């Protein structure tokens, strides 16, 4: 296991995520991910640590209100969130990691436009 750090654009939100050597990334085509350019690195809850105060975040929820989309109150960047597919974990935006090594990892396409039919494909990613 290896620890990586990341955060928002202005630096007010910082996090740490513990990963395996080459984790699985997902590129989702749902309306939210397409608009924000989010590349998913899903991890178990125990492998994610918020390093800054939670009061630096705003939370946006829609539809089922299960997913919790956290944004920096200052710069508006969503560097991580709690996904509906993995409510027992976090999805980190690989683009918000301090290291660019994620660009060498495998990125799988995920059909989020048909979320109900495909969500189960991701559920194993937040398990220890």
Give the tally of structural domains. 1
Please tell me the overall pLDDT. Answer: 95
Low-confidence stretches: none
Radius of gyration: 13 Å
CATH class call: Mainly Beta
CA-based shape: globular
Structure description:
- The protein has 128 residues and is mainly β.
- It has one domain (2-126): Beta Complex (Metal Binding Protein, Guanine Nucleotide Exchange Factor, Chain A).
- It is built from two helices and ten strands.
- It has helices at 31-36, 115-118; strands at residues 2-7, 14-19, 25-28, 39-44, 48-50, 57-60, 68-72, 80-82, 89-93, 107-110.
- The chain has a seven-stranded mixed β-sheet, with no helix packed on it. A three-stranded antiparallel β-sheet has the order 1-2-5, with no helix packed on it.
- The radius of gyration is 13 Å and the shape is globular.
- It starts with a strand and ends in a 10-residue tail after the last helix.
- The mean pLDDT is 95.
Question: Keywords for this structure?
Answer:
Metal Binding Protein, Guanine Nucleotide Exchange Factor, Chain A; mainly beta; single chain; 8% helix; 128 residues; 7-stranded mixed sheet; 2 helices
């Amino acid at each position: 296991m290896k620890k990586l750090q990341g955060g928002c654009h202005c630096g007010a939100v910082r996090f740490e995520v513990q990963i395996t050597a080459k984790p699985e990334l997902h590129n989702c085509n749902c309306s939210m991910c397409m608009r924000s350019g989010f590349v998913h690195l899903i991890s178990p809850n125990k492998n994610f640590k918020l390093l800054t105060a939670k009061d630096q975040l705003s939370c946006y929820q829609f539809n089922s209100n299960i997913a919790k989309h956290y944004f920096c109150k200052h710069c508006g960047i969503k560097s991580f969130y709690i996904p509906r597919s993995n409510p027992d974990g976090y999805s980190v935006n690989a683009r918000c990691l301090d290291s660019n090594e994620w660009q060498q990892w495998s990125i799988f396409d995920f059909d989020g436009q048909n979320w109900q039919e495909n969500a189960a494909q991701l559920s194993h990613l937040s398990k220890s």
